[in-house]
């Protein structure tokens, strides 16, 4: 796909970008909030910089934080 074709695709499907943004922003906000509350600066930076359409954010919220919480309870 050339640059012009990519640009035309984005112009013709602007609603797709809006939908992805509406989906991603709340997940990113929640994941960043959890990372800051848990004092995990590396996770905060990774979540802030990488844009994975909320996939990484969901993994962090539901799997990474739960696993670390269980490790603390086992001690």
Automatic annotation (TrEMBL):
<dbReference type="InterPro" id="IPR043712">
    <property type="entry name" value="DUF5652"/>
</dbReference>
<keyword id="KW-0472">Membrane</keyword>
<feature type="transmembrane region" description="Helical">
    <location>
        <begin position="12"/>
        <end position="30"/>
    </location>
</feature>
<keyword id="KW-0812">Transmembrane</keyword>
<feature type="domain" description="DUF5652">
    <location>
        <begin position="13"/>
        <end position="70"/>
    </location>
</feature>
<dbReference type="Pfam" id="PF18893">
    <property type="entry name" value="DUF5652"/>
</dbReference>
<protein>
    <recommendedName>
        <fullName>DUF5652 domain-containing protein</fullName>
    </recommendedName>
</protein>
<keyword id="KW-1133">Transmembrane helix</keyword>
<feature type="transmembrane region" description="Helical">
    <location>
        <begin position="42"/>
        <end position="63"/>
    </location>
</feature>
């Amino acid at each position: 796909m050339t640059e012009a074709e990519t640009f035309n695709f984005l112009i013709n499907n602007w609603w797709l970008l809006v939908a992805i943004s509406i989906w991603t922003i709340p997940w990113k906000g929640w994941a960043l909030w959890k990372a800051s509350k848990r004092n995990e600066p590396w996770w905060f930076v990774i979540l802030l910089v990488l844009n994975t359409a909320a996939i990484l954010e969901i993994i962090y919220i539901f799997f990474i934080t739960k696993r670390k919480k269980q490790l603390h309870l086992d001690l």
